[in-house]
Design goal:
The chain is mainly alpha-helical. It has a single domain, classed as ABC transporter involved in vitamin B12 uptake, BtuC. It is 78% helix and 0% strand. It has 14 helices and no strands. The longest helix has 38 residues.
Amino acid sequence: MNESINLIIIGRKKRHRRYILVTSLLAIIAFFLCCTLLMLGNTIYPVSDVISVLLGEKVKGASFAVGTIRFPRMIAGVFAGFAFGVAGHVFQTMLRNPLANPNVIGITTGSSAAAVFCIIVLHASNTFVSIASIIGGLATVIVIFLLSKGTSFSIGRLILIGIGIQAMLNAVVSYLLLIGQQQDIPTAMRWLSGSLNGAKMEELYPLMITILIFAPIIIAFGKRLDMLELGEQAATSLGVDTNKTRFVLIISSVLIIALATATTGPIAFIAFLSGPIAKRLVGVGFSSIIPAGLVGIILVLASDLVGQFAFVARYPVGVITGILGAPYLIYLLIRMNRKGDL
């Protein structure tokens, strides 16, 4: 008996060391990418100049390039990547299906459709667009859950209805772009491609504040989220209030991802890829919420660097993440079909 307990304790310590190591490495990689994004551009600035600018000193050339252009772009990538990564992991874990992420089931499309409507039809301010984006995301979640409820809740039904809602909202967005005025089209297209271009610090504060408020709540519910993955009955028997847990996690996740979409547009596949990558790296036994957020940051920043410097032309970050995510989606659909999960 004592030997079995010792083996369990040793195994848990190993998993904990692996979790700490992986999370630390992900944080280091994310920090390295942040530094690279601040240094690279049409002019490459040394670390000393970047640090001086961040400390508020005036450095000729660097103050504008780093402080006004690159730093807001980096902050947007960090907070949006973290939001997409965390929210995607929450939905995939809570609904026990890798396809059940905000991109595939239409939540980010709902936010984008609301934002594009405000830009094209109402010519609204950025603040109003952000509010409409949040409302659009929440409304999409409510509609999907109500339609998928039926006589009993079904994850498969929810995903199929979400895909249908996404297709309908994409049609709405296409129509709005068709009737929109020429001067509004570039702004609207930014929402659809997902881009860090033109990020401004004053526009990032709502996203930053929302994540700083709701991300700790999601992290605090991490253990209960992992219990939900075991199924309704198992989670209830372990003392989890499943309805309350789902409500808190859904509201928190939708708020952060709606504001991320309002800030950078729906950066493709970050929410889809981050959770599975983080789980594979971290292993079982500990919550993957923070690693998923870090993976989201890494994917966004690395893709932005590739989009800026790897090709002759510059591409928005959403184009690069779409190229990365599409093959994985096809692979996942084939694998799930073979296993009979579709």
